[in-house]
Design brief:
The chain is mainly α and about 110 residues long. The protein is built from 4 helices and no strands. It has one domain. Helix 1 runs antiparallel to helix 2 and helix 2 runs antiparallel to helix 3.
Length: about 110
Amino acid sequence: MMHLIGAIITLIGSIFLFLGSLGILRMPDVYTRMQAGTKATTLGSILFFVGIIFYGSEWAGKLIILILFIIFTNPVSSHALARAAHRFGIKLTDRSVVDHLAEKNASAGGDDD
């Protein structure tokens, strides 16, 4: 029974990973691609590793450390990459309605820190 639960959770994680890769291909600009990729791969990886924990509990400690690493590093690295892209001048898609960071910089009259 635990193997079946692990397989189902791993399959759901794999589906999220696949949807994340689809989002990277389908989104119109670097910022939305980054969001789609980060959110889906974070959840997909976590579910995948949780499924493996159900499948083979002898790896549970190492996999929990990997899950915590993913939880803390994926959003931070995505944010840093998005800020770097914005600072470098990569434009948003024409369909974007608002750019809060550009508005903040215009009102502050300075750098985007």
